[in-house]
Amino acid sequence: MYRFLLSRQWVILTLVALVLIPTMIRLGIWQKHRYEMRTARNDLVSAALHAKPVPVERLTSPGHAVTSSEKYRTVTATGTFDTDRQVVVRRRTNSDDEVGFHVLTPLVLTDGKVVLVNRGWIPANGAQTSFPKVPPPPAGKVTIKGRLKADETTAASGIKELKGLPDRQIMLINSEEQARRLHATVLGGYIEQTAPESKGDSPEQISDPGSEDAPLNYAYMIQWWLFAAAVPVGWWVLVRRERRDRTEAAAKEQATETEPAAV
Fold first, then answer.
1. Are 204 and 122 in contact (CB under 8 A)?
2. What is the residue range of 144's domain?
3. Is residue 178 part of a domain?
4. Given 47, 103, 149, 253, which residue has the most CB atoms within 10 angstroms?
5. pTM score, two decimals?
6. pLDDT (tens digit, 9 = 90+) per residue, 186-220?
7. Are residues 75 and 132 in the same domain?
8. 263 assigned to some structural domain
9. Where are the beta strands (DSSP E) in 99-178?
């Protein structure tokens, strides 16, 4: 009755089904891991953003690698901006996806140490072969607030570190590299400034990191597993249909053979 399953066509179809089932199950598991990772990341970011602000020296120090639990924590810093040694970070976009620069200005703390401050985004007006016009920060001693960020690396960001850039332009924000350039003691990581808020001609402040769409991965996980469950069901439906069609064809053939000849 099911001898047709040994035909070349059905053997291939069955093998394809047997491959698709574990493949779809594994894709669902991968989406599950993505959902868990994104959910954990969103929880960490939310907890960090809502934590009580602390002095930056309490979370980082020279040579310190900012951890995932420290990242995005709101910190404060008091000192004087060193505008003579500020640089700009190339190929950065704002909330409207316009390409420009991030302004990275050293803040000399009251104890002489330095913390790097990303003051925000400015447009890339004209050629990017020279140092752009940068709005100045407040003069004198200031207290700022911002999100603590980890040093940028090519491995983590995907941004290539290019050589031969124009003067005072960089690709990645890295405290160790800036410490060598400044010949100063620089705290690990950097601050993404959020206060005082931008006014007038000051750089456009960077928006908060927001949350990743973890429920989308959860939906994909369910979708892949439903597909995996549908494959054997679909295979069985096709088998039953093939059996029915063959049975009906055999019955018609038999009826034709037994029909009496016309007189």
1. yes
2. 51-195
3. yes
4. 103
5. 0.76
6. 999 999 999 998 887 889 999 888 878 899 999 99
7. yes
8. no
9. 99-109, 114-123, 141-149, 169-170
Q: Please compute, for residue 227, the number of CA atoms within 13 A of its CA located in the half-sphere on the CB side.
A: 17
> Same domain, yes or no, for 24 and 134?
no
Q: Specify the 3-state DSSP secondary structure of 194.
A: strand
Given the structure tokens 């060598």, which residue do they identify?
Answer: 180
In a domain, 116, yes or no: yes
Q: Based on the domain organization, do 143 and 117 belong to the same domain?
A: yes
Strand partners, 186: 114
The amino acid occupying position 232 is: P
The burial of 181, by beta-carbon neighbours within 10 Å (0-12 exposed, 13-18 middle, 19 or more buried), is given as middle
Q: How far apart are CA 15 and CA 229, in angstroms?
A: 16
Q: How many domains does the chain have?
A: 2
Q: How far apart (Å, rounded) are the C-alpha atoms in residues 24 and 236? A: 18
Q: How many CB atoms lie within 10 A of CB 129?
A: 9
Do 37 and 61 fall within a single domain?
no
Contact at 8 Å (CB) between 252 and 52?
A: no
Q: Residues 180, 88: one domain?
A: yes
- Give phi and psi for 150, each to the nearest 5: -80, 155
In-domain check, residue 204: no
How far is residue 48 CA from its own chain's centroid? Answer: 18
Is 159 in the same domain as 102? yes
pLDDT in tens, 117-164: 999 999 988 777 888 999 999 999 999 999 999 999 999 899 998 888
Cα distance from N-terminal residue to C-terminal residue, the chain: 36
What span, in angstroms and rounded, lies between the C-alpha atoms of 127 and 131?
Answer: 10
